[in-house]
Structures are given as C-alpha cells and as structure tokens.
Automatic annotation (TrEMBL):
TM helices/strands, residue ranges: 23-46, 58-77
Keywords, alphabetical: Membrane, Transmembrane, Transmembrane helix
Superkingdom: Eukaryota
Keyword Transmembrane: yes
Lineage: Eukaryota, Sar, Stramenopiles, Ochrophyta, Dictyochophyceae
Name this protein carries in UniProt: Magnesium transporter
Length: 99
C-alpha cells in the first residue's frame, strides 16, 4: 500500500497539466476503488459472523437507506447562491413602470 501511494504521488511530477475530463476520471476511479474496498471490508465480517448475519445485514440496509434519504434531501436543498438571493432586493424593470 505504501509503494502504491508513492507511485501515485510521483505522477504529479511527471504530468504538467491535467484536463478537466482527466481529473474527473481520476477522481471517479479513486472513489470507486475506495467504495469497493470499504464495501468488501464491511461484508467480510458479516459473512464470517455465522448466526448474526441477519442482524448485521439489517443494519447495513438501514445505513444504505439512510444514505439514500440524505442524498435526496441534500439534492433538493437550495444552493448557497439561491439562499443568499432571498435576502437581496432586486429592482425589476416592471417596477419602474408602476411609479
């Protein structure tokens, strides 16, 4: 693991610039690897547990459901820009005609 980190870090010295597409691919690849490693590390004790696998599987499903609910709630929340615009009074062109 340590050697992999050193090799990955040395790429910074070999590449001068990275495109947005290349950066997105690299970040997606790293996120996928970390997700798969975390999932496999969590599933290994569940499979080795024997008789308590139903309880552990239930909690795993509760965690997944909680994540999905939070993701939906966050995606529907207003952005910081939308929130700040609520406090700014904007003068519209049609307001000039009324005066």
């Amino acid at each position: 693991a340590g050697l992999s980190t050193a090799v990955g870090g040395s790429v910074v010295f070999l590449v001068n610039s990275v495109s947005d597409r290349g950066m997105a691919f690299t970040l997606a690849l790293a996120a996928g690897v970390m997700t798969s490693v975390s999932t496999l590390e969590l599933l290994k004790p569940i499979l080795e547990a024997g008789k308590f696998w139903t309880q552990q599987t239930l909690w795993l499903l509760v965690g997944i459901a909680s994540y999905l609910l939070l993701a939906m709630a966050i995606s529907q929340a207003p952005t910081a820009e939308q929130q700040s615009l609520r406090f700014v009074k904007v003068k519209h062109d049609d307001q000039d005609e009324e005066k």
